[in-house]
Amino acid sequence: PALPEAVDFARAHGVDLSDHRCRSLAGEHLRDADLVVGFELIHAATAVLEADAPRDRAFLLAEIVAYLDQLPSTADGTAEGARLAVEAAAALRRERRLEVAEEIEDPLGRPTKAQTLIAADVAARTSRLARLLFGEEQRT
After folding, report:
1. Dihedral, CA atoms, 20, 23, 27, 32, nearest 10 degrees?
2. Tens of pLDDT along 96-128?
3. What is the CA radius of gyration of the chain?
4. What pTM was estimated for this model as a whole?
5. What distances in angstroms separate CA 40 from CA 50, 88, 106, 122, one per listed residue?
6. For residue 112, which of 36, 38, 13, 24 has the smallest C-alpha distance?
7. pLDDT at position 140
8. How far apart are CA 109 and CA 2, in angstroms?
9. What single DSSP character describes residue 57?
10. What pLDDT digit, counting tens, does each position of 42-74 carry?
11. What is the Cα 128 distance to its own chain's centre?
12. Residue partners of 136: CB distance under 8 A and separation at least 6
């Protein structure tokens, strides 16, 4: 289960993590996933190397948002529009291989203020990602 401090922190921000369970990717197969998102490079790399996630569909959260911000929108509220956006982000990443993707810090063990800032960053980026993939009508 999620750590008690994570459950308490999430609850204070209107999110219920009480049913959350961490899982290893060992033995999992993500080859059919439309998008795999990690906060740290090790997350995305593990998904690709251990769970067969397609490299072109595995991103860091900050990375995919940054790439999608540079592209014309294909967001039309459909899964197909979102898939096209992910494909375009992957193509842009291939063109700019040397760019370093920003990782999001693990809030575990950090002071409450740092946890709050990290949570706000994640919330903003995930909301932005939903809008970039699906359009303005989506709610996170």
Report:
1. 50
2. 875 667 899 888 788 888 988 998 899 899 999
3. 16
4. 0.84
5. 16, 22, 8, 12
6. 13
7. 43
8. 13
9. G
10. 999 999 999 999 999 999 999 999 999 999 998
11. 11
12. 75
